[in-house]
Structures are given as structure tokens and as C-alpha cells.
Amino acid sequence: xxxxxxxxxxxxxxxxxxxxxxxxxxxxxxxxxxxxxxxxxxxxxxxxxxxxxxxxxxxxxxxxxxxxxxxxxxxxxxxxxxxxxxxxxxxxxxxxxxxxxxxxxxxxxxxxxxxxxxxxxxxxxxxxxxxxxxxxxxxxxxxxxxxxxxxxxxxxxxxxxxxxxxxxxxxxxxxxxxxxxxxxxxxxxxxxxxxxxxxxxxxxxx
Amino acid sequence: xxxxxxxxxxxxxxxxxxxxxxxxxxxxxxxxxxxxxxxxxxxxxxxxxxxxxxxxxxxxxxxxxxxxxxxxxxxxxxxxxxxxxxxxxxxxxxxxxxxxxxxxxxxxxxxxxxxxxxxxxxxxxxxxxxxxxxxxxxxxxxxxxxxxxxxxxxxxxxxxxxxxxxxxxxxxxxxxxxxxxxxxxxxxxxxxxxxxxxxxxxxxxx
DNA sequence: CTATGTGAATTTATTCACAGCA
DNA sequence: TGCTGTGAATAAATTCACATAG
Lengths: 206, 206
Known about the structure:
Chain A has 206 residues and is of the alpha/beta class. Chain A has helices at residues 8-24, 34-41, 45-53, 67-77, 93-99, 103-106, 157-166, 193-198, 200-203, and strands at 31-32, 59-60, 64-66, 84-89, 109-116, 125-126, 129-133, 147-150, 171-174, 187-190. In chain A, β2 (59-60) and β3 (64-66) form a beta hairpin.
């Protein structure tokens, strides 16, 4: 492997390769070729090989990739070899759904803190976590939570994000339909479900 | 405007511009410059101008863009000048949350049909829609539903998609953590929340 | 003979820089 | 002067093609 700036797009695809490997490993043999993996995921074999090559040489020419080893290597690259605590703010319908979202723990994520501003919800136990008042977000500092999940209305999204940054949170998954301003060292990933739905009609030939 | 193949990325950003315009129109004047709009959205002014230029000439040199007119034009490009019916399959936690997701109707989307395979849910009314048996998906043919939202477990995601295609659905928003195989004329947008969460640790410098 | 890893070629997207209109 | 629209320049990502290893 030579030096290469790693394309963002390759980083975005890496989790998909991991997902494919985890979900296919029961019916697949010990080894897998880039072609088979690519077919399974609906991408091109050379894309798979190129993406892996940014991070190292994981395969054996003439043979393919050792599935178990490849899973370990991708997990290590993505820093999923350790578990991560996340805090979720805003237990509306979407927030509550995410609390029980089963895929998170597969990858080692644990929603260890939940906040809301609704007195009726504060103190209640949801998915085995007691809902705390948003004014206590600052207390996260002592609790080793570096990931924040924002599912609050957009009117309070920025202040929620700011409170999380101040509490030492270093990356954000934002479901509020607005752009969050954050310090450069903070990684923000925005998911706006409506934005994805909205572009479907464009592609439908009438 | 000369002929240009429109970049997919520009189409992906168009809804974001629309969102920004809709949410800012109350405090912004009649006209807006590409710089102000770009600042508000956290992108570059020349990106905004270039993206618009793929679709036409919407602005006035020296002045800027007429906000109201721009909103109308983007809506027309995205085919949001008419409303769209969608069918949602799988009323688990996530599916139920989406049923009441308020952003959908802002853009003219209406979840007009809901399906599940759980007898306890079939016949129940949720968010003003009666849950139907998945075996009735075929009946969508007569009901002018062209958009499908899949929130079923991955084990039945592909068969759900196939049923939707057969019922005349032409685009899919897929929340199941797997890749859906679809005819080329069908547009599939995949959202896997876990995939977005999973890449946060990569960007966190330890 | 098979399948990887990777430079090189190609395609796609972003950014620049400025002509031209209000 | 201010701001758009857009070719041209640059950057980034994808695809190809093949040398090389098992």
C-alpha cells in the first residue's frame, strides 16, 4: 500500500461492507472474493478492492478474502473494536423508536443516557434507561459519552448540540431538519428522512 | 443555460435548498443572494449558483433570487407541485414513528396505506389509517400509490419490495439494513441509520 | 489459472474567475 | 457596484487493465 488520501466515499462504504459480511457469514464459506462480496452488495468488484486497498492489503491473490479476518480489520479501522456510549436527546416518536433500534448494539453502540425537556417524561424509564432533564446534559462530562444523537424539534436543535459539545461530546448524529453549526473538530452526520423521501418523485418518469 | 447532464449530487442538494428557503422565509426578505442562502445552509455560494444553473436561470444579476419564486421552481423540478401518496410496510417502532413524522406532509406526502403481517395490528387504526394485511399489497394497483416505505425486518425486505413493485410502486425508501434488488426503472433510496452512526468513531481522534 | 492490489485513464463533481446584466 | 450564470481549471472518485502473488 502506497500513501493515499482516503476518499470520504470509501469511508462511507466501509460500514456497508461490514454489514454485508456480518449478515452473509452464516451461508458463506470461510473465504470470499471481491466479486462475490460486490454482487451481494450491489457494487463493483474493483470498487471493493480499491476501497480495501486504501487501508491495507487484506486479501490473498488467487484466493480472496478471509471473511472473519476481514470483519476484524474493518471493525478496527472503524474503531468498532471497542464499544461506544451514546446520549440521545429528545424522546419523541422518532427518539423512542431509536432507543429500541436493535442494529445499534450489533455494532457495539449503547445508548447510555437519554434526555428530554418534558417533565412528564423525565424520571420515566425507557428501554432500561431513566430519562433525565436536558439541563443535566453537562453531567455527561463525567460519563465517557462521546456520541450524541439529536432527535429534538429544530427550534432547539442548535442549543442541544451546543450543550452536547460543552459536555465533551465529539460527534453528532442529527435527525433535526436543520444544519448544525459545530466546531471543526466535531463530526456531524445529518439524517433528514424527509430529504430522502422528497427526491423520489424527481426520479419517477411520469 | 446550455445542455448539461445534471449531477446526482445537485439533485441531492436541491431538497436541502428548498428546506432552507421554507424554514427561513419568515425572517428573510423577499430576495436572497446566493451568498446568504449558502451561509444559512453551510455551503458555498458558487455551489448554490451552479446547482441552480443546471435547471435554469432563476436569479437576477445584481439582485439575487426571489424567494417565493425560487421555492416554486425547486418544487416544480422535484415534482412537489403535486401531492404524492405513499404506502408504508411494517408498523414496528420505526414504522410507527414515521407514520406521525410531521415533515412528510410539509412537502406534500401522504401515507395513504399501511401494511403489516401481525394479526394483532391488522385492522387497527394508526395515525388515521387502518393497517392492512401485507397480502393485500397488490390492491395498491388501483389506488395510485407510487411510493413505498419499507420498515420491515431484513428477512422479508426483498419480498416486500417485490410485492410493492408488482403493485405498481415506482420508488422505494428502504429502512431495512440490506440492499434491495430492483428493476432499473425503479428508484431505491436506502437509509440505514446504523450505517451513519457506525462511521462516527472513525472521525473521532482519540 | 484465479483473484488481488494499484498505477493510469476516465469520468464526475467542485471551485474558480470573470463576462455581462441590473 | 453587486450578484448571477457559466466556461475553464482543478480536484475527487470511479473504472480500467494488468503486473504480480498464490
